[in-house]
From TrEMBL:
Protein name, entry field: HTH cro/C1-type domain-containing protein
Coiled coil: none
Gene Ontology molecular functions: DNA binding
CDD domains recorded: HTH_XRE
Domain HTH cro/C1-type per the UniProt entry, residue ranges: 13-69
SUPFAM superfamilies for the chain: lambda repressor-like DNA-binding domains
Protein source organism: Taylorella equigenitalis (strain MCE9)
InterPro entries, A to Z: Cro/C1-type_HTH (IPR001387), Lambda_DNA-bd_dom_sf (IPR010982)
UniProt signal peptide: none
Pfam families in the cross-refs: HTH_3
Length: 75
């Protein structure tokens, strides 16, 4: 089950991805995972989630700080 923290990170990345007009496929290719994996992460029906390595790679791909993908306060 995805925690509130997981859901925050997932939504933050999804929002940034869409703002930059980046598809799930492009993000997946940029961080070295399958498009299906990104789809499972963004789906509420699957338990897939980003790990710290994914967050680091996503931040590089989106040209943002890893810190900007995380909540400012504990959840």
């Amino acid at each position: 089950m995805k925690s509130a923290f997981d859901l925050y990170v997932i939504e933050k990345i999804k929002t940034l991805r869409k703002e930059k007009n980046i598809s799930q496929l492009a993000l997946a290719q940029g961080i070295g995972v399958s498009a299906g994996f990104i789809g499972r992460i963004e789906s509420p029906n699957h338990n897939a989630k980003y790990n710290l390595d994914h967050i680091n790679k996503v931040s590089k791909f989106l040209h943002v700080s890893p810190r900007s993908l995380l909540p400012e306060e504990s959840i």
